[in-house]
Amino acid sequence: MRSLLECDKELQVVGEAGVRQELLNLLDHTPTDVVLMDVNMPVMDGFETLQQLKKLHPEVAVIVLTMLDNAPTLRRMMESVAIGYLLKDTGKDELCSAIKLAVKGTPFISSGMSIKMMQKVLHPSKEDEAEQTKNSRLSKRELEILSLI
């Protein structure tokens, strides 16, 4: 990852951490604009780590870099104030663009995840429709009419 990012002359990698406490210690001593982190982390998961990180270092933008390409994980991370959500198959150019946007405070979702979400909207599964109905204040018939509109 470091060598991939260092190919872009506008980016500088200031550190690497493998676990939550290592990351928090690094942030205490190293000025940092953006953190790339996975949801699946040893010791404490990415959700808890993100909440702790934002509490201690609210100025740091966090981009989630993960293999988890599902809407509930995306929603949970964005609700936990991640500014970006990238899949691990994201290309170098998109990754570097996401980091530059995060520095400016602009949210970013990888194109792969965006396409997946668009497909779910256009072609929802029965489970998606059931979940939408359960979480909606509209009746099933109202939702059906809305989708037809």
Give the tags.
11% strand, alpha/beta, 149 residues, 4 strands, four-stranded parallel sheet, Rossmann fold, elongated
Structure description:
- This protein is of the alpha/beta class and 149 residues long.
- The protein has a single domain, classed as Rossmann fold (3-Layer(aba) Sandwich), CATH 3.40.50.2300.
- It has eight helices and four strands; from the N terminus they run ααβαβαβαβααα.
- The protein has helices spanning 2-6, 20-29, 46-56, 71-79, 92-103, 111-122, 126-135, 140-148, and strands at residues 34-37, 61-66, 84-87, 108-109.
- The protein has a four-stranded parallel sheet.
- The model has no long low-confidence stretch (mean pLDDT 85).
Supply Rg: 18 Å
Note the total helix count. Answer: 8
Give the N-terminus to C-terminus distance in angstroms. 45 Å
Briefly note the structural class of the backbone: alpha/beta
- Percent of residues in β-strands: 5-15%
Main beta sheet strand tally, sense and closure? 4 strands, parallel
Unreliable runs? none
- Going by CATH, what is the homologous superfamily? Response regulator
Compute the number of strand runs: 4
Global shape:
elongated
Provide the CATH topology.
Answer: Rossmann fold
Question: In sequence order, what are the helices and strands, one letter per element?
Answer: HHEHEHEHEHHH
Please give the order of strands in the largest beta sheet.
Answer: 1-2-3-4
The total tally of domains equals 1
Helix content: 40-55%
User: What's the CATH architecture?
Assistant: 3-Layer(aba) Sandwich
- CATH class identity: Alpha Beta
Average per-residue pLDDT, rounded, comes to 85
